[in-house]
Amino acid sequence: MSRRRYVKDYRINEYIDEKGHVTSESEYIGGDYRFVLPTARVHGSAKRVAALGAVGWACFLVLACVEGTAMRTIYVALPFAFSALPLFLLMRSAISALRAKDGPLRHDQADSIAHTLPAAALWAMLLPGASFLGCLISSLAGAEEWDVLFLALSAVMTACGALCFAARGDFATKKR
């Protein structure tokens, strides 16, 4: 279903080339989209989101490589492991916003930036936050040792996701 989402935005033009072969090209006929805010502000917000996403990825990779008691608990490890997908989507949307020029955006680009980024930021905040709470509860309930590194870095990941989610309004788009 999602593969055919933007089919109406393109038209297929067929023609015969010099060698007699039928060649087809796609032509974008969908509407033009623009950012609601000035492009300079969007680029500034995209740089901040990309930097926060890079910090989130650094925390994720450190915690994935360091062995600790938190990653042996299923209700801590699962939300943490699934936080890689929102981090990826967050970075992809931020990079797309950075690449966007003053000119118009295609429909799929506008959706990727304006709709994917807020959802990815929300999940990049909630999943490490759930892991943080799970680790804190298991530590308070009498775990053998406190996993201080996991608590600190998952709190940093949660804060990065919250700051990205707070900037979601800067990436709004509208049809021209």
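The above is record 1. Record 2 follows with the same two-line structure.
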Amino acid sequence: MFNLLRMDLYRIVKSRSMYVCFGIVQVFAVMSVMLLWLLGKGHEFAVMLGMSDYGGQQSLSGMLNGLDLISVFRDTALDGGAYSLMLGIWVMMFTCMDYQNGFIKNILSVHVNRWEYVISRILSAGIVNFFWLVLHYGFLAFLNLLFGNLVPHAAAGDVLFYLGWAWLLTTAFAALIVFICVLTRSAAAGTLAAVCFSSGAVVAPLYGILQMFHKGGWLKHTIYFVLREGPGQFGGMQDLTVYVTGAVFVLVYGLLAGIVVKRQNI
């Protein structure tokens, strides 16, 4: 299994799709920081040029109150689903490519235990996801410094806590995309799933409908809602449920993908 994982990681490093998708995430970060700068520091120039007044400056600057780097990090990509979208699209390309070019036959002829294929895919996605999250947060911190410390840095413990469960949830999302790709063998289905589930286009309307009958509370435990509404800092043992949620989804989608691959006629 480790030979398969090593091969997958080698292919990932050599592929351009991973760098392109990650680069798009960084574009979101740049746009977000520039918007914050315009809301805060940039408005001072408008006052100097007579294009605005001090009342407007105080109002816009007040919008930055209470924000820290974790809040900006979440608003940049995680809460809205942009990060999950790009991660899902990359996982789709990496997984569906095996079926489209027939490479899956070579893999499964060497690795008879098909569970190894699924485990390797999810582990590879988890490793890439880890570096994406860390580098994205580091890049955002650099941009914040470059633009004059628009928002304060968060405590190291809060950063570790948040990145830890965010990594589990987004890895679970990657496992979901792996499951859909091996089930349908379709890049279109994988892309559609990445778009719909990352944006909440499925669970958000469903939650609204079920809440009319007071039956939608269970949807608050889905990946989309937990990513959007999960705690930014540790406030008690109840906050650890986000870790449990992420771990459960990784196991469930991993098991479903493994069952599908094991029963497929490749």
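The radius of gyration is 21 Å.
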